[in-house]
Amino acid sequence: MKITKVRTRVLQWNGKTVPPQANFCTNASDALYERGDAMGSFRFHEWLVCEIETDDGLVGIGNAALAPQLAKQAIDLYLAPLVIGEDPFDYAYLWEKMYRRTLAWGRKGVGMTAISAVDIALWDLMGKATGKPVFKLLGGRTKERIPVYASKLYSDRIEVMQAEAQSYVDQGFSMMKMRFGWGPKDGPAGMRENIKRVEALREVIGYDCDLMLECYMGWSLEYAKRMIPRLAPYDPRWLEEPVIADDMHGYAELNAMGIPISGGEHEYTLFGFRQLLDLGAVSVIQYDTNRVGGITAAQKINALAEAYQVPVVPHAGQMHNYHLTMANVNCPISEFFPVHDVEIGNELFYYVFRGDPEPENGFIDLADDKPGLGLEIAEDSLGDFTVIE
Ligand SMILES: O=C(O)[C@H](O)[C@H](O)[C@@H](O)CO
Ligand SMILES: [Mg+2]
C-alpha cells in the first residue's frame, strides 16, 4: 500500500459563539500588564483536518487544533512530500523522517502538531487497512468501558457552578474538573473566590466524587505554593498546569507539596516527558495526542510513564485519545468535554467530526468492530465553517 495524496483543510468556525464570562479561566496571559482580550491566546476557533489517501482507495483522517493554518503549511510544504509514495505501515520510520527533517524548527509547538496530524491519519489508515479499530493495533482492550470525567465548570457565579456540577452527578459522572478564575493579580480576595468555588462544589458532589482543579498555566509558582495548602483539605484528585509549561522545576516543587500535580498538554515528544518524569514534576501525564507527536509518540510516552508508574490521562476527549486510553492499563480514565455551544473552541471537534461516543453513566465505549479511529468528517454540515483548502 502506498500513500498517494495528503489533503489538508482548515475549518474556520463562523457559527454562534458564546462569549466567556469574566474570570472564567486563568491563563498564561494573565501575567501581562495589557488589558484587552486576555483570553485571545487560548481561544481556537479553527480546526485542521488532514486526510491521507492510498493507492487502494483508503483515506486516513488526522486532525490538529493548535495554530491550524500554520500546521497546514507545515504539512503541505514539508511533511506531505516526505510521506507520499511511502507505506503507512512504516509509521515509526515515517515519524522519525518527519521529525528529523523538520527538527531545526519543528521540535515543539506547531511543527510537532503538524507531525501529530499526519501520524494520526496514518494510524487511522492502518486500522482501516486491517479492518481493526486503532486500539486493537495498540494493545487491544484493557477495560470493559472507559470511565470519563466531565470537563467544563468554567469559573462562574457559585449557584451556576453548583447547578452544573449537580447536572453531571445526575448524568452519572463520578469525576469532574473545574477551572479557576483568579490568579496572582487578584490578591487574597481572588484566593478566597477560588477557594469558595471548590468548597461550593464539594458541598454538591461530596467526597465520593473526584474533583480535578485546572489553572491552565495562569498562576505563578509563588501563588501556587500559597494555594496548595489551602486547597489540600478539599482533596482534589489533581491540580492541573498550575504554572507555565516550561517551568518544569516549578512543577517538581509543587508536586512534592501534597496535591498531585498534572500537566503535559503543552509538552511534546518522548524527550519532553522524560524530563518531566525524571524531575518527578507530575503525578499525572496529560499529553494531547494531536500535539505531542501523534499516536506513535503517545504510545512511547505511555511505556515510559508506565515504568515510572505515573498514570496517563490524555488531554481532551476525541477518538485518538480514547483509543490510546483503551489500549493501556496505565491510562485509567479519559477527559470528556460535555457537548455545548462553541466557547473557547474545545467543542469544535463535535461539529467537524461524527463518531465520538456518547457517555453513559460516566463511561464511554469503543466498538470492537469499527475500523480505524471510527471517525468521519461531517461534510454535509460544515455550513458554519469557512474552508481553507
Ligand atoms: O485540560 C483541559 O481540558 C484544557 O486545559 C482545556 O482544553 C483548556 O481549554 C482550559 O479549559
Ligand atoms: Mg488542561
Automatic annotation (TrEMBL):
* Swiss-Prot/TrEMBL cofactor(s): Mg(2+)
Keywords from UniProt, A to Z, are:
Lyase, Magnesium, Metal-binding
Q: From the UniProt annotation, give the residues forming the signal peptide.
A: none
User: Biological process (GO) annotations?
Assistant: amino acid catabolic process; carbohydrate catabolic process
Q: Which CDD domains match?
A: MR_like_2
The UniProt entry, under InterPro entries, shows: Enolase-like_C_sf, Enolase-like_N, Enolase_C-like, L-lyxonate_dehydratase, L-Rhamnon_dehydrat, Mandel_Rmase/mucon_lact_enz_CS, Mandelate_racemase_C, Mandelate_racemase_N_dom
One annotated GO molecular function: L-rhamnonate dehydratase activity
The family assignment reads: Belongs to the mandelate racemase/muconate lactonizing enzyme family. RhamD subfamily.
Q: Please give the name of this protein.
A: L-rhamnonate dehydratase
Q: What is the lineage of its organism?
A: Bacteria, Pseudomonadati, Pseudomonadota, Alphaproteobacteria, Rhodospirillales
